[in-house]
Amino acid sequence: MIILDYHKYIGENDVIVQVGAYDGVECEEHYGLREIIMSAKHECHLVEPLPDVFEKLKENYKSSINDINFYNLAIYDKDGECDFYLHGTESSFVRHEDCQSIKVKTQTFHSFLNENSIENIDALFLDVEGVEDVIISQLFNNTNIRPKVIRYEYPHILDNKSLQKFLRSQKYVVAQCIHGEGDRVCIRNDVFRGEK
């Protein structure tokens, strides 16, 4: 599998959506998304379900030059409310032994986009502990939005090979992320080839 750096495909004024933004610092300093959000003008939409981490996220981006939209909810397969399980430094919809849970507001990705009038996404970043394929499916099946760049974490996805095959069928180059072993980078074919 080829290795790609997604940074060169993101331009100024691009619309960035990050689902599973955590605190905006941990991991993202390594992956470089924080630098992009802090250093150039973009329309940013950051989603984080954990209330305490969500407050840190807002605090950590308060010096950004961007007007960032923050959303304290989880993107899932239904609108409403669900149990969200806390296990170690991670959290997810998957229950583990001896872990606490909290109730979180949930929305489908389609509902989230409609409610917030998001009609375009240039770069989509997903770190949602196994729901990445659900979100990508909702995006491609319910909208005409086709981001230039998609970066997603894949170790928790049950059928990662099927997701890669699906993205290739949607005309994306699927590669390993240069910034981490557990992430895939998908670049839309026309962007990858430099076509207008």
Describe this structure in words.
The protein has a single domain, classed as Rossmann fold (3-Layer(aba) Sandwich), CATH 3.40.50.150. 27% of the residues lie in helices and 30% in strands. The radius of gyration is 16 Å and the shape is globular. It is built from seven helices and twelve strands. The chain is of the alpha/beta class. The protein starts with a strand and ends with a helix. A hairpin with a 2-residue loop joins strand 6 and strand 7. The mean pLDDT is 87. The longest helix has 11 residues, at 132-142. The strands form two sheets. An eight-stranded mixed β-sheet has the order 1-11-12-10-9-2-3-4, sandwiched between helices.
Q: Report the radius of gyration as a whole number of Å.
A: 16 Å
The CATH architecture name reads 3-Layer(aba) Sandwich
| CATH 4th-level superfamily | Vaccinia Virus protein VP39
How many distinct helices? 7
The portion of residues forming beta strands comes to: 25-35%
Characterize the largest beta sheet: strand count, sense, and whether it forms a barrel. Answer: 8 strands, mixed
